[in-house]
Every structure is written in C-alpha cells, then in structure tokens.
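Students often ask why inverse folding is considered easier than folding. One informal answer: many sequences map to the same fold, so there is more than one right answer. In these notes we will look at a single instance of the problem. The structure comes first.
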C-alpha cells in the first residue's frame, strides 16, 4: 500500500486500504456518520464495504448535470434529517461528481464538518478526490460555487475500477495524461505513452504517480495563487466545451472534454512559443490515439466564449490560461485573446 502525505491528511492507495478505515471511523459516533453514494456505487461498491452496515446513506443521481444547487439541497436535507452536528462525518463513496458535491456540502454544513473520500472512478482517484477543492456548477458554469476544504483522509482502492465502463475509464485517463504533460518530464510521459490500451490492469500502476504529481503541486500552493494554476491546463477550453455539451441531448463526459481542451491549449501554447512544434505534435498525437472518436457538433463560438468569460481565471474581460512550458516547466496567467482562441478551435474543426 502507498501512503501519500498531503495537507494535514493521508492518501492511502492499494487493494487493502479498507484496513485503514476502521481507525478513521472510530473517531466518530456511529449515529453521526453518514454515507453518500450514487446509483452506480450503491450497487457496485457499497456491498463491498461491510463497515457501513447500519449507517444511513443517501443515493444521489449520477452525472455532471446533477452537480448543482438542487442536489446540494438534497444532501443538506439528508444531513438535517439525520441531525448531523459539528462532530459528524460524511463519507463520499463515488466518482468525481459525488466527490465534488459531497465535499462542498460538508465544507459548509454547520460551518464545516469532517469528510472522507472513497473514490470509485479513475477520474476521482487521480483528480477530484485529492487536492482540497470542492464545488458545484451554476447555470452550467463549471465549479462556480465552491470552497477549499481538505478531507480527513482519502482511500483509493483500484479494485473499484473493475466496475467502470470503458468510457468512464477513458474519462479519468485524460486527467492522467494532463498530469504527465504538466510535470514536464518526458521520461514520465513516455512511460505512459507505452500504454496501448486503457484498462484496470495496466492503469493501476500509474495511479500513485499521478496522485503524487498533483499532490506535490498542491502542497506548494494550496489556494491556487501561482503554480497550482497549471493543474487547470486543458480546463479553460475543456470546461467551456463541457458546459456547451451539457446542454445537448448527448453530453460528453468531463474527461472527454478535457482531452479536447488540452489539444486546443497545446495549440495555443505552441503559438505562444512555449511548446515546440515537435513537442506539441507529440502530445497531440498521444491524445488523438485515445480520443479521436469523440463527437461534438460544431459549437457556437459566442456561446463558448460566454462560458470562458465565466471561468475563474478570466478577469475584466481578459482571458488567462495555464500552459506547459518546454523550457521553464510551466506558465500561468498567460493572456490569450479571442482571436487566438477562435483560431485554435478552428484547427480542430470545433467551430
């Protein structure tokens, strides 16, 4: 089992992480412990955790469309009905959406109660469950309402990946690609590049490394004042694409839009002189190997830019991006104008 120390809490990674759970749960009264699951984890994962017998749990709808204030209110009603006080514990057993919304609800209930994350998807294992960010969407704008709040612990059991569809696996793998690119370590990237397919067996050995990359950055900059902004690589364009997609009949998954967003931002970084043509091609070809079949109808550029304008990194009508930088490692707060964004989107026939 791997143990990664983060900001006042531990991240446990391994098939036997359940052995660490009793010590964590023993700190809380049984009647002050509740569990959040979604309809997928209720059937696939909750039965594997005997520790939560006779503990109240709430089943939430899955999917990004439900990461909103309405669902948050359902969670708060649940906490209210169970009389969860300041010494309560909320256990988030699920994927990225559930990790985000559960952590957010806990962070503001009674001005903050403890929570632990048990991520069940690849995306939540390598990204959403670690780092101390919480959030919900507002008017389709991603993570517009949220807090910085760390869990008491994170328990990552790769065996849960066996319950995932291939599409969900690929969604999480996009964040692993992001981590490999932003660490600016070609050797690390090339190890990931050797993967010919994405499945439970061959991805598991890379989980601890991906978590370590993110954790190292977060430890240096917990509140995203500088270097932590590089974790947003692919997300300014990707979140806007996701927000547009969420209004369609067949929305893409978070990681799918992040894969598209990384391609757009790699092109922007190349045009800004931060990536050579060779490095940009290396990264883009690798992303295309796994995500070339994504279908997103051509988007309305004005609608896309409306979501970019709501991005947390936009200020006074100006747009700022975070890019990998071949020479300097990373670059944050890089100004980009609308014309440059439009040209980059056009390169991939998105508009």
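Output (designed amino acids):
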């Amino acid at each position: 089992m791997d143990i990664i120390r983060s900001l006042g809490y531990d991240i446990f990674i391994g098939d036997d992480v359940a052995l660490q759970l009793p010590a964590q749960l023993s700190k809380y009264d049984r009647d002050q412990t509740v569990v959040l699951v979604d309809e997928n984890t209720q059937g696939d994962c909750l039965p594997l955790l005997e520790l939560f017998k006779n503990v109240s749990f709430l089943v939430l709808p899955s999917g990004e469309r439900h990461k909103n204030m309405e669902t948050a209110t359902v969670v708060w009603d649940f906490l209210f009905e169970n009389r969860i006080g300041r010494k309560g514990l909320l256990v988030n057993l699920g994927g990225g959406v559930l990790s985000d919304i559960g952590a957010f609800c806990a962070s503001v209930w009674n001005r903050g109660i403890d929570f632990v994350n048990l991520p069940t998807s690849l995306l939540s294992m390598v990204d959403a469950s670690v780092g101390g960010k919480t959030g919900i969407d507002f008017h389709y704008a991603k993570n517009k309402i949220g807090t910085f709040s760390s869990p008491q612990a994170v328990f990552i059991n790769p065996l849960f990946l066996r319950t995932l569809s291939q599409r969900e696996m690929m969604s999480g793998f996009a964040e692993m690609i992001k981590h490999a690119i932003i660490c600016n370590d070609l050797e690390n990237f090339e190890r990931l590049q050797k993967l010919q397919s994405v499945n439970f067996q061959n991805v598991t050995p890379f989980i601890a490394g991906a978590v370590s990359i993110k954790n190292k950055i977060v430890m240096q900059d917990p509140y995203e004042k500088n270097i932590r902004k590089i974790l947003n690589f692919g997300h300014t364009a990707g979140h806007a694409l996701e927000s547009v997609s969420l209004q369609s009949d067949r929305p893409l998954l978070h990681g799918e839009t992040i894969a598209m967003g990384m391609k757009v931002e790699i092109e922007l970084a190349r045009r800004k002189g931060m990536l050579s043509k060779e490095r940009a091609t290396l990264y883009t070809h690798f992303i295309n190997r796994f995500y070339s079949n994504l279908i997103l109808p051509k988007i309305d550029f004005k609608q896309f830019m409306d979501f970019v304008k709501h991005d947390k990194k936009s200020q006074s009508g100006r747009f700022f991006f975070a890019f990998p930088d071949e020479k300097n490692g990373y670059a944050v707060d890089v100004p980009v104008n609308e014309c440059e964004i439009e040209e980059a989107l056009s390169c991939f026939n998105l508009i």
